[in-house]
Design brief:
about 15% strand; single chain; 2 domains; 20 helices; disordered N terminus; SBP; Bact_solute-bd_prot1; Putative extracellular sugar-binding protein; D-Maltodextrin-Binding Protein, domain 2
Length: about 425
């Protein structure tokens, strides 16, 4: 299971002051430096330590064979990554290149002019920009400028369904909102929860809000919220979304016990795999989660489709929400040969052999030419569905709890959870969002 920043109730949602952290092993070039810093003949690169880190270790080893300035890779344990990065930036121990989530995760660094604007590098080498799916590349930017180069797989939110449950009910995957409403009645009549949702982990409920706001008002609604702040929550699409959530809860779309269901302990996924729920709106990592914990279901029982349009909505039904990918960003303090080495490294990590390594790791790369490589994926059908979905999306909205500054995550989660639990009316939900 892959859970990005703000994707686990076990992980701190705020960015508190960092405690002493144990940093993982390093792959060093020549030179010496203090913790996290870099020597004269090297650049320091930080990466979030998880099973995917092996792909970054491999690319560092290949790069160091080609460059006079070497990369020193520091693997930072996942639960401490955001804290360590925040407290290190602006100090001599700050990384020269670092892993991040784009959006709100780097907004404070951009405000303080700590990051390198990659626009000039892309202008100098157009292939760097053309090498990635545009919506993915744009999601790593701030105010129209590029501060990140994609470096891991895509993670869109997908509407998964249980093939066996659908077959027993004689039902087809939904293609419209009217289908959604009909399916709620169909599965309730069969004693099956229409949609599992992990109510103890409100970020899972947020996915519904994100897609509905997009479908009602388009991607511009959230972009306006990002740029204009509190009053922009008053957009009609937000109220329509809140009313739709209330309607879904009232219809029993999420069953009766969703408030006590979890995701981080595999509660929702197991419930879904065992046929107690028909559908599950979740990030693309759900496939890997099911493969690990319910492999038979992942192999033959798991289906997937897109989130439908809504009546009267003006949003493009091809739009996607979720976590576009992770990014490399470069420190603005770098100059001369070290800056060029950092740019060369992120370009090196955009080559086809890196994409192949991601695919071998079970990821779906965000490069514009990855489609031709996906037959090498462990599940080519699923990989191609994801890739086509994202490639064809006019806009890919980053999950709100990652796109907004970290201070907004706790009230955002609380308000969404209260909406689902009936503790906030639709109008009160809008007012609460305006008050964040």
């Amino acid at each position: 299971m892959r859970i990005p920043r703000s994707r686990s109730s076990l992980r701190a949602t705020g960015l508190a002051a960092a405690a002493a952290l144990v940093v993982g092993g390093t792959l060093s070039g020549c030179g010496s430096s203090g913790p996290g810093g870099s020597g004269d003949g090297e650049i320091s690169v930080w990466v979030y330590q998880d099973p995917s880190t092996k792909v970054q270790r491999q690319v560092v080893e290949r790069f160091n064979k080609t460059s006079k300035i070497k990369v020193k890779l520091t693997q930072v344990p996942g639960d401490g990554y955001s804290d360590k990065l925040r407290t290190s930036m602006g100090t001599p121990n700050a990384p020269d290149v670092f892993f991040n989530w784009g959006g709100g995760s780097i907004s404070e660094f951009v405000k303080k002019d700590m990051l390198l604007d990659l626009g000039p590098a892309m202008k100098k080498d157009p292939s760097l920009k053309k090498g990635f799916i545009p919506s993915i590349l744009d999601a790593g930017g701030i105010n129209g400028k590029h501060y990140g180069i994609p470096m891991r797989g895509m993670q869109p939110v997908i509407l998964f369904y249980n093939k066996d449950v659908f077959e027993k009910a004689g039902a087809q995957p939904p293609k419209s909102w009217n289908d959604i409403i009909k399916l709620i009645g169909t599965f309730k009549g069969k004693g099956v929860t229409p949609f599992v949702v992990a109510g103890t982990d409100p970020w899972t409920e947020l996915m519904w809000v994100e897609y509905l706001v997009d479908r009602y008002g388009g991607a511009g609604v959230f972009k306006k919220i990002q740029s204009e702040g509190k009053d922009a929550w008053g957009d009609p699409a937000v109220l329509k979304t809140a009313r739709t959530i209330k309607d879904l809860v009232g219809r029993g779309a999420f069953g009766k016990n969703y408030k006590s269901v979890n995701y981080t302990a595999d509660g929702a996924s197991t419930y879904f795999a065992k046929g107690k729920a028909a559908m599950h709106l979740m990030g693309s990592w759900e496939y890997a989660n099911q493969k690990t914990n319910q492999p038979a279901f992942a192999k033959s029982g798991l289906g997937w489709t897109t989130f439908p349009s809504v009546p009267g909505g003006t949003g493009d039904p091809k739009n996607v929400v979720g976590n576009p990918t992770n990014y490399w960003s470069i420190s603005g303090k770098l100059k001369g040969k070290k800056q060029q080495a950092a740019i060369d490294f992120v370009k090196f990590a955009a080559k086809q052999d890196y994409a192949k390594a991601l695919i071998a790791n079970g990821d779906v790369p965000t490069t514009s030419d990855a489609s031709s490589l996906l037959n090498g994926h462990e599940n080519p059908t699923y990989a191609k569905f994801q890739y086509d979905m994202v490639r064809d999306a006019p806009d890919f909205t980053l999950s709100w709890d990652q796109a907004l500054p970290a201070k907004y995550t706790p009230p955002l989660h609380t308000n969404v959870q209260k909406l689902f639990n009936g503790q906030l009316s639709p109008t009160a939900f809008v007012d609460a969002m305006k008050g964040m």
